[in-house]
Amino acid sequence: MRFIKFNDKNVDSFLYMELADLTKTLTKNDDIEVEYRVSSYYDPLQKIIYLSHFWDNRPDSDKVYGLKSDVFLRAIGSYYHCDFQEVNAYLKKVKRSSVSSLAKQLFMLFEDLRLEDVCTKERPGTKKAFATRRNVYRKYFATQLNANLIKSVHTDALFNGIYLLLTAENPFEEIPFITNEVDMAMPFIRSQLVKVYEAKTTKDIARICLELVDLFDDILDKDMLNTYFFLAELDYEELETGLTFDDLKRESKLANDDILEHEQDGDEDIHEEKMEMWHRETSKATQSFLQFDMDQGSKTDMLGDGVREGDDGDQAVGIVQGASQKTSRNDYSQMEAMDQTHPEKDGAADYEYGKDNKYAFPVFVDPTIPTDEEVALYGENKQLISSFQKKLKQMIEKTLEHKKTLPRSELQFGRLNKRLLKLWTDDNPRLFYKKDQESPQIDAVFSLLVDCSASMYDKMDETKLGIILFHEALKSVRVPHQIVGFWEDTNDATETSQPNYLKTVMDFQSSLKPKSGPEIMQLEPEEDNRDGFAIRHMTRRLLKRTEKQKFLLVFSDGEPAAMGYEQNGIVDTHEAVLEARKHGMEVINVFLSNGEIDEGQRKTIQNMYGKYSILVPDIKELPDVLFPLLKKLLHKSI
Q1: 88-126 b/e with 16+ CB inside 10 Å = b?
Q2: Fewer beta carbons within 10 angstroms: which end of the chain, N or C?
Q3: Is residue 563 pLDDT above 50, yes or no?
């Protein structure tokens, strides 16, 4: 399994995609995101479910069940059964407590146990995951209890003991002696712990915790040192239970929270319609009479509840009268086009290229005229692949469908038509026809997308040989194709602006020209790569083509990495591939290595592209691997 680095942790890409799909399925919300953090919790404001790094470095079975239990707790429990208003109220009450960390971790522990019970009742299939979770945590907290007792970290030891008591199968289980004060309070603590499994709501959990916190404020000298469970302190007040009509009418607050200074009593024309704000450019309140939707302005004390009846003399009637004409002002169409090119300016509300690429925008680069050195180098590489070109050409001709010519009818000779009416109606009837024939032209189009990231540095020479092989073979059978290199500029990329370069070294029109090809040598390893964005962009180009069969070949090593893209890059690329295939395109990954391919890389590429991947350590093996794959794709499309 191929791993990607995230916060100095190895993230299993295939497992991550499985957990992300499971989360969206359970919440029935495609906008919910999944990320990794030290502790697991649900952020209802950002719509993000965080999975805990606690499960890293565990045995594979424990790791999978542990992460799934995090998903179940958050996607079933917290998402549907947690009252975040009660969470907010509890956080305010314990904020000034001397053991605030203990108070928050107790609440999270108790709430998780309540939600665990809810999950197992709603979905009994989750029991095995929660059983694994409990076994792992019990072993962990037993170890932590002994360690904290040795270090005299009494508050942490108490929390460890509370977990062991709550999850004990034996009701008579005891924990070691911690302090005299804790030992004397243990009967009350046990009685409160019994109530945890009787709690039905978040409010019940908060009440139990507050009673314990009052006790711990008196008997404990220090707060907790470690964080085992994390209760996020978010702005829960932003979670609205419902919207009023005024909320629906306004999208944002006023930019200027000021009031007009020169309002004079008796000068305003008081109306009964609602008119709560005036334009800032108005120096003083005038006898305006219309209500406007405004996002910027100043407040006024003129309020009303009625609706004003229209008048024939209203100035607004005069505004709309007259002929429509082209304005004499400046043309701002170019500015609008620039706004569309840079999605960061409008907040990137449209996720046309995927949510993980909402701040990415294309920068198109044209090739330069090939130099004599590039022409000579291309000639040398062409000679290297010449022995494989003929074989690949024959495979393409045999495998891909040819265009059909229209059937020829009304001929003087050929096959007799079954419709003989013209024999009686026409003086010179043409009753013969000939069957339609295959055109020598193949009804297909190819797009070759080349990863030009820095990770391709040691593979670019081999990749160029593969691209040249495809180009010469496709050119020999007259199949139009384009070759585009892609990369992201690391130095210019920010959180809200990520320029992605698309260098079209060969377009569809020039691909069939006899002297085309040396431009391929201009592809060089650059910086980062945002594969999902580039694949979606090439998909839209191919959709404009009229050929029946469309192929997108992605020459990449399967390691997408860019600004804010390390964790979700593999998932986003996988989604982009699925979107292209839904449009009837065949997406194939081609990985030409300069040596043996390790199992991790192979698994990562298969996670993104499925079984339609060509991984060869030597270009000599490419035709032998490509032929059965093309044949399989053709049979699938028939």
Answers
A1: bebbeebeebebbbbbbbbbbbbbbbbbbbbbbeeeeeb
A2: C
A3: yes
